[in-house]
């Protein structure tokens, strides 16, 4: 089917294609009669004219679209909330988003999300880090002056704008609250992944323990399958949680006193822990979670939560990128504090 152009509309109405362009782009600086305007719009509807957005974006020097680079599952709460924040800000500014993974372009040897800007398909990139790792193309970003924000990582490059979350302080504050309430033992049930987020959290816990030299920190790791897809890893992680809980966590909890505590690193872990403690009638042990997760409904159990504000992080990432695109002043590095530790009472 042949694409209808403004020249076809001009021929239908009997006016110049320039006049048609003025009408369709709502140019009020040109004197065009109401009769001619209505005739052009009516012809555009009848011929089912669709604007050429590529040509329009070249004229406006803007695609009004942002590339969001993400390789993890959007079904995970963390990434879904980041995208929610990004979408809310972009939507109010008239921008859409194009979701992309970390795939490399075979010809140019650079990531597809960078290619999308160079090829004028998007105006900039929000890079959502994988396990806290920085992007591999920082030199190219700087060389081409690409509007770019690295989200959820701490890149070493000074010139790279970033939005990060203070995982270390979140873990520190939770541990201090539990220790201040009388905990002598804290078991950190940790996902066994090689990630900067987990390094920060463990560092925060150790700093808190230094303030309470008589207390003990125990770390139990849940093995995570490496080299598999994100979906397969999370399916297997459920089974590994149950196994780790039975073999490593519950045996250690037999020595715990009522004020002692367990801190879960990932939200998925807490539902298994709560279910096991409820079945064993061991509700005196305190529980905390460092992740953005729903708290399971377990009667009689108080759970301390401190959540990274991922929705806010998504919003700040979008605002930071739009400031670059519009050539406004901006703060190059933003670190978002977690929510203060608080008990959720069921």
TrEMBL record:
Transmembrane segments: none annotated. Residues 4-60 form the HTH lacI-type domain. It holds the Pfam family LacI. GO terms for molecular function: DNA-binding transcription factor activity; transcription cis-regulatory region binding. Signal peptide: none annotated. Keywords: DNA-binding, Transcription, Transcription regulation. This is Transcriptional regulator, LacI family. It comes from Lacrimispora saccharolytica (strain ATCC 35040 / DSM 2544 / NRCC 2533 / WM1) (Clostridium saccharolyticum).
């Amino acid at each position: 089917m042949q694409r209808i152009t403004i020249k076809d509309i001009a021929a239908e109405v009997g006016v110049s294609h320039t006049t048609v362009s003025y009408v369709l782009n709502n140019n009020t600086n040109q004197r065009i009669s109401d009769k001619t305007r209505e005739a052009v719009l009516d012809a555009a509807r009848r011929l089912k004219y669709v604007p050429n957005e590529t040509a329009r974006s070249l004229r406006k020097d803007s695609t009004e679209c942002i590339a969001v680079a993400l390789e993890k599952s959007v079904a995970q709460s963390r990434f879904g909330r980041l995208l929610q924040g990004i979408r809310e800000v972009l939507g109010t500014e008239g921008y859409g988003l194009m979701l992309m993974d970390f795939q490399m372009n075979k010809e140019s040897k650079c990531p597809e999300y960078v290619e999308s800007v160079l090829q004028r398909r998007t105006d900039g990139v929000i890079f959502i880090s994988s396990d806290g790792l920085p992007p591999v193309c920082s030199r190219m970003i700087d060389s081409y002056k690409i509007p770019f924000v690295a989200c959820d990582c701490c890149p070493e490059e000074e010139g790279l704008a970033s939005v990060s979350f203070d995982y270390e302080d979140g873990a520190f504050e939770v541990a201090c609250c539990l220790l201040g309430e009388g905990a002598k033992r804290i078991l950190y049930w940790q996902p066994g992944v090689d990630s900067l987020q987990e390094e920060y959290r463990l560092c925060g816990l150790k700093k808190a323990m230094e303030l309470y030299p008589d207390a003990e920190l125990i770390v139990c790791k849940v093995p995570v399958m490496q080299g598999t897809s994100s979906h397969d890893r999370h399916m297997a992680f459920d089974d590994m949680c149950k196994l780790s809980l039975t073999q490593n966590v519950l045996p250690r909890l037999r020595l715990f006193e009522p004020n002692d505590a367990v801190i879960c690193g990932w939200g998925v872990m807490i539902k298994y822990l709560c279910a096991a403690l409820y079945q064993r009638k061991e509700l005196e042990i305190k529980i905390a979670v460092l992740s953005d997760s729903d708290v399971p409904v377990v009667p009689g159990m108080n759970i301390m939560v401190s959540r990274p504000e991922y929705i806010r992080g998504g919003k700040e990432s979008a605002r930071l990128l739009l400031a670059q695109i519009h050539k406004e002043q901006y703060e190059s590095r933003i670190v978002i504090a977690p929510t203060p530790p608080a008990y959720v009472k069921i």
